[in-house]
């Protein structure tokens, strides 16, 4: 008889524990749902609004060149800083020599320009009528700030990778629900006249103390 009473009490205790566990799980789930629901609320112009989970709440800012394109004149000012000049300072007063295809043919300026960009020449990208703008292969004029549009017409696969986040540097958030993102421009990393990255050589291996040997394992 005593054994039956003990067994009954054990069953009741187990049932109470199970019910308590279920209540705890449900209560915790409710608290989490409430917290998530609060995260879905944002303030816009001082008015509280709601948004759909997954929507981008912040923008992607792409770094763009500002102002007009400038070139180093090779001279210094009184503070020792490089004197920069606008392209049209010279190109507005000199007739363009359409036969020039490389910097080695130049005599007055740009002699030290390293140019290694396939079979392209200056006028493949620069607008002969206004050297402070660019031109596409179809002749359409592009503002210097939109240089990525010019790059994308030939470097399509790279532009596709850039748009998907596989190419190009960035700072900020992958999740645009948490914060904004700032991305580099093509010419932030690539020299437009010689865009290929130089090969990177590996560093020297670590030095081994005298009398010590380094074991290497090769997996096949």
From TrEMBL:
Q: Which InterPro entries match?
A: Multihaem_cyt_sf, Multiheme_Cytochr_ET
Keywords tagged on the record = Membrane, Signal, Transmembrane, Transmembrane helix
Task: Tell me yes or no: is Transmembrane helix among this UniProt entry's keywords.
Answer: yes
State whether keyword Transmembrane helix applies. Answer: yes
Q: Which residues cross the membrane?
A: 12-32
Which protein is depicted? Cytochrome c7
């Amino acid at each position: 008889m005593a054994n039956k009473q003990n067994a009954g009490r054990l069953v009741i205790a187990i049932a109470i524990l199970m019910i308590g566990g279920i209540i705890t799980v449900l209560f915790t789930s409710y608290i989490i749902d409430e917290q998530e629901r609060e995260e879905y609320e944002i303030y816009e112009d001082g008015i509280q609004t709601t948004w759909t989970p997954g929507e981008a709440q912040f923008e992607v800012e792409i770094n763009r060149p500002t102002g007009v394109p400038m070139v180093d004149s090779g001279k210094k000012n009184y503070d020792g800083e490089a004197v920069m000049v606008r392209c049209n300072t010279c190109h507005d007063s000199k007739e363009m020599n359409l036969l020039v295809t490389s910097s080695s043919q130049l005599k007055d300026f740009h002699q030290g320009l390293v140019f290694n960009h396939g079979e392209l020449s200056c006028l493949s990208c620069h607008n002969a009528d206004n050297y402070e703008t660019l031109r596409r292969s179809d002749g359409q004029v592009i503002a210097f700030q939109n240089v990525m549009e010019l790059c994308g017409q030939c470097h399509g696969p790279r532009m596709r990778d850039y748009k998907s986040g596989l190419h190009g540097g960035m700072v900020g958030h992958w999740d645009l629900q948490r914060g904004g993102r700032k991305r580099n421009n093509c010419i932030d990393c690539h020299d437009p006249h010689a865009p290929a990255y130089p090969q990177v050589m590996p560093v020297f291996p670590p030095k081994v103390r005298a009398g010590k040997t380094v074991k290497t394992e090769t997996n096949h």
